[in-house]
Amino acid sequence: MNKNGVGGGECISMIMTNEQLERYSRNIILKEVGAQGQIKLLNSKVLIVGTGGLGSPVALYLAAAGIGTLGLVDPDMVDLSNLQRQIIHSSQDLGRPKVLSGKETINNLNPDVDVVTYQEGVSSDNITDIIKDRDYDFVIDATDNFTAKFLINDTCVLLQKPFSHAGISKLYGQTMTYVPGNGPCYRCVFLNPPPVIEPPDNDEKGVLGVIPGVIGTIQATETIKYLLGIGELLTGKLLVFNALDMEFRKVEIATRINCEACR
Ligand SMILES: [Zn+2]
How far does CA 86 lie from the centroid of its chain? Predict the structure, then answer.
């Protein structure tokens, strides 16, 4: 699945340093990963759109796992009200661009990671260039608005890039994985952005800080599984999380015959 693997005959110690062998040892001893899998991760490139509640755990776990290149996209500065859930940022980062704060935290955790920053919001003018910039292998939708979610979906479908969708609200979350040619896209399920009538009230904006932690961690898991080519992905399935009842439900979703994006 990943074209960056190495041949079976190559000596692992010539490819990974002793420090890397130790850092990633708990990955490498897993039969699902192994040294070849770790090298795949080190050669992988993942774009994370949004460096907030969802983007924080995604970026931290992918950095810790040794994903070689992480792209961070976010136009915003760190605000005090972010820190209740956006765990990649700290109190001393207030007022700083989120992509720079994120890059610093990632490189403190793992200097192996090449962090590419895009301090801008995604729009139809720039998203294709951003995805093509490093020819990213996988895209993470860690955004908080429908316009960006549909834009990421439609662009990834067009460019045939796999991506992980997630959405959170209050005490609920959902996530699905799109793989080209293998199951429905986000627009198959949700059709169109809902009409914007008025700004959300305070209750609508509320979210328990751990919710993006749970859902973002699942997005990171899906990314690693995709890059390694292991297990069953959330393709054709929407995982819905209800923290109040502590319930995870997998809802079967189908490709829509007349989908504007993928058909
Ligand atoms: Zn579709």
Answer: 14
- The DSSP letter of residue 11 is -
Distance CA 159, CA 227 (A): 17
User: d(Cα 161, Cα 150) in Å, to the nearest integer?
Assistant: 14
Which residue, among 47, 40, 3, has the nearest Cα to 163 in the 3D structure? 47
| pLDDT surpasses 50 at 86 | yes
pTM of the predicted structure, to 2 decimals? 0.93
How far does residue 191's CA lie from ligand 1's centre (Å)? 8
Cα 163 to averaged position of ligand 1 atoms, centre (Å) = 13
Q: Are 59 and 48 in contact (CB under 8 A)?
A: yes
Which amino acid, residue 143?
T
How far, in Å, from the CA of 259 to the mean position of ligand 1? 5
Give the environment of ion ligand 1: residues with CB less than 5 A: 185, 187-188, 259, 261-262
In the reported structure, the alpha carbon of residue 62 is separated from the centroid of ligand 1 by a whole-number distance in angstroms of: 27
Measure the CA–CA gap between 217 and 177, rounded to whole angstroms: 13
Q: Each residue of 25-34: pLDDT tens digit?
A: 999 999 999 9
The pLDDT value given to residue 205: 81
Tell me which residue has tokens 């609200």: 169
pLDDT of 2 > 50? The answer is no
| CA separation for the pair 183, 6 (Å, rounded) | 29
CA angle 191, 196, 197 (to 5 degrees): 130
Q: Are 161 and 151 in contact (CB under 8 A)?
A: no
CA of 261 to the centre of ligand 1 (A): 5
Could you identify the residue written with the tokens 């069953």?
Answer: 232
